[in-house]
Amino acid sequence: MAVPRHPASRLRAEYSEMSVATDNRDQSRQRPQDYYVLRFICTGLAFFCFGLFGLLFRLFVYPPLLLLRRDPGQPLARRLISGFFRTFVETLRLTGVLTLHIDRPENLRTPGALIVANHPSLLDVVILIGLIPDACCIVNESLWSNALMKGPLNAAGYIPNGDPAQTFDAAQRYLKEGSPVVIFPEGTRTERGSRPVFGRSAANLSVRGGAL
């Protein structure tokens, strides 16, 4: 991923079984069965907590935020979501489910930065938002039909990728206000083994949104 005006920040995340298989296959064969059972349990508990957070946010946090004006409500919601995502990723890291390598993470927090990323895993958005407290993200429109996700998405002011013109205008406004914007120009998950195909949305937004 790259942030304009600064050296590129790089982020690489691996599930533990992937890194073990790559770094030392003989060692992976010697792992006790209890290790994999524990990792499976930790993974299940972590994602259960993720869903529970969405439910609690929808029931107890989202309604009070509706009483606030847009400007103070959305930054607060984004910071709450970022804090939870950061805790979630750290839990995965400490329990051995995830290995995370980050170069120059401070570049990601540059005000008004356009953060362009590929999308190889489900956790990409979670990791990035956890690193950038005030980031707005362009999100798959289908997530608004998820009862657990709709409340947090609306409260944070995240941008659905449905209508291209509306998506572009909203992202451009956030950039001009100084908020970092996260975009996945492939438009969907990266297929393993295939060459990424990037749309022109990130380049257009970078030039016309003033990120360059």
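Above is the first protein from milestone M3; the second protein from the same milestone is given next.
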Amino acid sequence: RTKDLGFSAHRFFLWAKRFPGFEPSVSSYKILVDVLGSSRQFPLIWDLLAEVRENGSFELCPEIFWVIFGAYCRANLPNDAVRAFNRMVDFGLRPSSNDLDHLLYLMCKRKFVKHGQELFDKVKRQFAPSVKTYSILIRGWGD
């Protein structure tokens, strides 16, 4: 539905930001990132995040990265989803168990269970895996 609108949506967003009084919300950033991800405009996503980080105009939140994880998984790019998870620290966010659970869920949902298991095996000592984490992996292997 939005796979061809990424560049146009980004330009519109930049245009709208120039208006006095317009303050983009978390929802507007999530929508833009989702549209850019659906159109596989991943470099624009990272440019947008870098701009936000440099300007300090908006505090990034984990939910924006969850949208990025989903976009990479839908694009059949699980390794890039893992790289996005690892890049959270570059944007001032320390990945949590909840972020890991979201990434594992999205990977398992798209049948990238092996990639999810490899990630889990690498990071399980850094995070406190919960029942939810194990349930996501077990369900992924069972599907």
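Note on the second protein: The helical segments are 6-17, 26-38, 42-55, 62-74, 78-87, 97-109, 113-123, 131-142.
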